[in-house]
What does this fold into?
Amino acid sequence: MIARGLASTKHVLLAHIIPTRRCNLACGYCNEYDDFSPPVPTDVMLRRIDLLAGLNTAIVTISGGEPLLHPDIEQIIQRIRNHGMIAGMITNGYLLTPKKIGSLNEAGLEHLQISIDNIQPDDVSMKSLKVLDKKLEYLADFAEFAVNINSVIGGGIRNPEDAEAVTNRALTFGFSSSLGIIHDHTGAVKPLSKREERVYRQIKHLGKYSYSRLNWFQENLARGIPNDWRCRAGGRYLYICEEGLVHYCSQQRGYPGVSLEQYTFADIEREYLTKKLCAPTCTVGCVQKISVIDHWRDPQVDPTERPRSSTTTEAHGTI
It folds into this structure.
């Protein structure tokens, strides 16, 4: 993926796609779910996967809501793999059973991430180690795909020390681990408190064992320092909501707001070159990690300095 990214800027490296907005949990900091939406029809999801393949997408990650609530999630994963794209999933883990893990293996899932927010469930988050530890045992015993456990600090999490316990438990199972600093509804973050920063430093010490070492993005954000970077959302990274619209990310829905059916290589190029005004305080790590590949090249233009069109005529194809 990195080699392809360096060779050409004219294709999507990572797309997040939503098969259902509904979730079986209601975490206090989350704005990415509801408790009533029906799943996207399977034929519509498969069509969207085909469209992403037409944009030469390298990786497709399924998230939500809770993606395991979709009745045909395995068929969606299979479609991703049939196109030769890497298939990943972000889940709260509650619905994982040995049987479900087996079906995900057969579908060809390659990577799964669970965020565990605390040790004991509370009114901020039910994604607790107490509830999910048995699910981790199932994954260790049966999963044929890579597993990453993401611990978190910030966003109202009461005991930041829980993140260190979650990280150590993940490593005990042989999983990779990462740390997220929870953002607000705009994707921005407040500086960490002294207590939170202490935990951040302790987990950073474990970074050489982790899936994603804490990078300079988080280092600055932890201190409340804005980052100077070129966000390539809408170009190298796409977020496709349940309605099939392309957005910059989960926290900046509405921009560019173009249907994936009409999204073209011209849209990719335009957004690749468009400066994102929310970037300095952004903490959406997946966008940062994809964008860093192109940090060294192609300066961006402030969107207020040029007109932008929401439609283009270039057809889907191969570049």
